[in-house]
Description:
Oligomer: single chain
Low-confidence stretches: none
Helix content: over 70%
Order of helices and strands: HHHH
Number of helices: 4
Number of strands: 0
Largest sheet: none
Radius of gyration: 27 Å
Strand content: under 5%
Amino acid sequence: MKNTERVDFRLPSETKELLKSLASKKGLKPSEYIRRLIEQDANNISCRQQIHNPSHEQLIENALPINVFTNGLLNNPRLTLEARKIITKEMRNYVGY
Length: 97
């Protein structure tokens, strides 16, 4: 591994033994085991952020079906003007307009 740095931290002796055991079961040194856990956790956080903090493009993509439905509803010639006003008002409240 290139450009490595040393990190020192304390663990209770039971945790240290557990670390050695878990790493050994995977055929890894304790430092490699910890590095992989950190990378897995970072990947999981990244995936969760994409779900909880979607990009602008993802927000647009997710809104398209709702937009198509709403436009179809509002453009229905059988819909009364009063019903259009109510739907428009509710949609503005929904999107914070």
